[in-house]
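Dear colleague,

As promised, here are the two records you asked about, laid out in our usual form so they can be pasted straight into your sheet.

NAME FIELD: protein one
SEQUENCE, THEN STRUCTURE:
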Amino acid sequence: MPTSIVALEILLILLPGFAAAYLVQLLALRGSQTDFDKVIEACLYSFLIYATYVLFTHGTLPFDVIPPKAPSTDYFIQWHRARLLGLAAITFCFAVGGAVYVNRDGNWLFQKLKLTERTARRSIWNDIFQREAKKNQVVQVELGDGRSILGLLSYYSDASEDCSVYVTQASWVDKDGNVIPIPGPGILITKNASIQSISLLDN
């Protein structure tokens, strides 16, 4: 069998895992990964996807390599649409499952078993905002100059290194406790404002 056909087979086998890993990256708040970590994760997804796929198809791949027939010397790949759709569905399910595991902190079971104290989320920044903050949560953001901003939390950054939040219906609160409404829809507070703390308040 030509090397190009073997390489194509390997690519087709690995592709679902890379697709699943990419979808998880899009849907979940993950920690930073090296290229090697991403390759290992994609290979693991490929193994799990095909292990599940084989259970439903009794070991048949979504394609067949047809050997050449004289006088032709070219190999031919025959695709099976139903199997491809099944493989795509399994890949999508694994991707969604991986994203839910991260976003909903799937490590809770291992925490119950005392196997780890780590959560599945990126950092404590994501733990607090995803678990504790509610929709239109009232927050008070204390800045480095002693002032603070009171309002409703609408958006927050994915990474704690950025530590930016967007607050609507916002007001300045000075050192003496005076409240000064901020005109406009809201204010974006970036890390350049030297955020000291963010208080989650009762509505």
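NAME FIELD: protein two
SEQUENCE, THEN STRUCTURE:
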Amino acid sequence: MKYWAVLLVAWLNSLLVYCATDKIVCYYGSWAYYRQGIGKVAPTDLNAKLCTHIIYTFVGLNEAAEVKLLDPWLDISLGGIKNTVALKQVNPNLKVLVAIGGWNQGGARFSIVAGSPSLRKRFAQNAVNFIKEYKFDGMDIDWEYPAGNGGLPQDKANFVLFLQELRSAFDQNKYILSAAVGGARARREESYDVPNLNKYLHLIHVMAYDLHGSWDGKTGANAPLYAGPGDNPDLNVDVIIQQWIQAGASPDKLILGMGFYGRSFTLANANNHGIGAQTLGPGIPGPITRASGSLSYTEICSNIKAGWTVVYDNKQQIPYAFQGNQWVGYDNIQSLEKKVDYAKTKGLGGVMVWSLDQDDIRNVCGGGSWTLLATINRKLRLTYLRYMIVMLDVAYSPPENNYLPFA
């Protein structure tokens, strides 16, 4: 292979991390620091080169429109915020945002602030001051949900005014404004004026998961790519994304959310373990996350390693696993590859993961460190220059050395 061609291939390889326009937005649940053993994940454990954006979760909002630390000991004394922001020293292209809200925050305080012109203005300035003080690159609004969870019907309109005020203040400081939004039709129609969200947000993180769970009374996939027989036609990733686009969202602003966890169930009959099987309630908590009805990917792959049966549903393009009366629907390498391909086909801005700390970070199950996140990177960030590199490498290598890089 000619020397200049070798250098060109090396240079193109070095650009792979930086040239892909698609985003990999990674939420980090800061409370993972408190987990025991292999489940403990500190900011210093994160791989800064596998994400384009990392979002530190969560800070809170009070009725006086102030940004409040929810765990000052973790966030400040233990260096949670400082060490997360410091990841930009490892990857200078990384953007680190802070998320405000979350399910536990509820909708009432957001509703109060968004409904008052003076409080909206005050919050915008407080948000700018907070971002500046802690050296973030922006803020992610995780209001779950306007007009729901303690909110008011007028939240849908007021959310637009809230974002308008923020965007004006953020643009003056070149900060990123994003939001995590509920995906399915009922939530979208109740909570979001999509064209105006599209106008004021840089990124729209669509939470296209939690589509089924123990609340259904029967087994179902956490985030099926496509609808299955007899399933609610609105509760799958494909329809959710298409509906958001039809409602007025720009595809390049939409970030497809994917879960690094599964929804688990206790079967009513251990011999009836397909999708749609009757259940008695949520699954048994895992040893790491200790949450009924939910298992991290590390917990799931550990169960599989211990003998759980895995079935891949080709219609919905998702796996599920079971043993005895325990059942879980989740995403694995194969299903995430399908979703990344889908995001690219639809021209979306990229993908989002909830959450970094639930991946198999330490190669417990033999799939490699950061099993799921590495899969996403391989599919999303390497393919754009792959063909050019392969062709150059083949063209300038001796016949006996022809091979396909990254195969």
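A couple of things worth noting about protein two: Residues 13-21, 384-407 have pLDDT under 50 and may be disordered. Residues 195 and 248 are 5 Å apart (CA to CA).

Best,
R.
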